[in-house]
Design a protein that fits this description.
386 residues; alpha/beta; 5-stranded parallel beta sheet; 11 helices; 30% helix
């Protein structure tokens, strides 16, 4: 099937231009002035077209906690937010610490034919930091591992995990609390052992300083920041890590500008009302994440190119995907946005099964109009003619 997107303003990490795109069989075939006759045409006049977003850090609660979220509600929420690829953490029930469980959950997600789902594998059996999972077998079905939700306190376990990430060529995502202390330890071990380290949801000025100094000294690793840790500070609302101070938020924004922070990740963590009242940490944010990010970027004169690099290009590259860029031969996962459209965060309108957020009523900038996966429209908030 062929589809032409006409009159689009194309933006990715390096591109910002007015052009057409020819999509065929789920692939970007050509970018340029396309004059071929085609039965399917989308006129993208007035819209910006970007690579669909890639989320390295989210929770879809399947299996075991479907009362909080399930694949159907979570994927529709992700598509509404402009996401084409999402990585679900392993803290499910049962835990994703075996290859067969990962493969079965992946198959269940794929059967919906909505977006690209990557099931993250558990670093340790039952998410503990005692015995490594069978990474060699699990690597056949996932490129990314984490004990997220649990800090790896056992230093010997972390040594073995870093070594395994090199041997088995996977991304090792860490949950660090106490944040600065664990980051310092992990970077010390990385210096000794090597590995493919990715530090999740950094939130403080001190963490940024530690990471920046290590990168200045030539260390190779990546880190991420969430929308809520950029959008809010000093809030009495339970997330892990906690909301920090204004100075920390300003430092994180500077870290984005300086290239110290690599990835924007949602840490989408839906909960039931009762679970939140009982102290469960987490925020439901995947369908408003882009607007939260773009509000901060726009206010601080950070470009849409930089945002695209962090929300699409870099995470896709880390995961080994031919996604995240507007390039011929890459997957036709696209998001159409209006960057000037103001919105109000209304939890009651969330597609997600949950609506836990402290930002109800807050205004954000930018709206996702349409999300396309493999050249097929999966979310559409406007009338499209063809």
């Amino acid at each position: 099937m062929k589809l032409i997107v006409k009159n689009a303003h194309l933006v990715d990490q390096v591109r910002s231009e007015q052009n057409d795109i020819l999509l065929e069989d789920g692939i970007i075939r050509k970018i340029g002035d396309i004059r071929k006759e085609c039965s399917s045409v989308i006129d993208a006049t007035g819209m910006i077209v970007m690579p669909a977003f890639v989320d390295m850090h989210s929770h879809f609660r399947t299996p075991g906690y479907e009362y909080k979220e399930d694949f159907l509600t979570g994927f529709h929420a992700a598509l509404k937010g402009g996401y084409g690829t999402v990585c679900g953490m392993a803290n499910t029930m049962p835990v994703m610490d075996r290859a067969d469980r990962i493969a079965a959950n992946q198959e269940k997600a794929n059967s919906l034919e909505l977006l690209n789902y990557i099931q993250i594998g558990a670093l340790g059996l039952d998410l503990h930091d005692k015995v490594l999972s069978a990474h060699d077998l699990m690597r056949d079905v996932t490129p990314i591992f984490s004990n997220d939700g649990n800090t790896i306190e056992n230093e010997q376990f972390m040594r073995e995990a870093l070594k395994s990430s090199s041997t088995n060529d996977f991304v090792l995502c860490t949950h660090c609390q106490p944040e600065e202390e664990i980051i310092e330890r992990d970077l010390r071990l990385l210096t000794e052992i090597g590995g493919n380290l990715h530090i999740c949801h950094i939130s403080t000025e001190k963490s940024l300083g530690i990471i920046g100094e290590a990168k200045k000294n030539g260390m190779k690793f990546t880190c991420e920041v969430t929308p809520h840790h950029l959008f809010g500070y000093g809030l009495d609302y339970k997330v892990n890590p906690p909301f920090a101070a204004e100075k920390d938020v300003l430092a994180l924004i500077a870290g984005i500008r300086q290239g110290v922070i690599d990835v924007l990740a949602t840490d989408h963590a839906p909960h039931s009302k009762q679970d939140k009242e009982n102290g469960a940490p987490g925020i439901d944010n995947i369908e408003v994440a882009f607007g939260m990010y773009w509000s901060i970027f726009h206010e601080n004169n950070l470009s849409l190119n930089r945002l695209s690099e962090m929300i699409s290009g870099k995470p896709a590259s880390l995961l080994g995907l031919r996604k995240g860029r507007l390039k011929e031969g890459y997957d036709a996962d696209l998001v159409f946005i209006d960057p000037d459209k103001k919105q109000t965060i209304l939890p009651e309108n969330f597609v997600s099964k949950s609506n836990n957020t402290p930002f109800a009523g807050k205004e954000i900038l930018g709206k996702v109009l349409l999300t396309m996966i493999g050249g097929k429209i999966k979310y559409d908030s406007r009338e499209v003619t063809s």
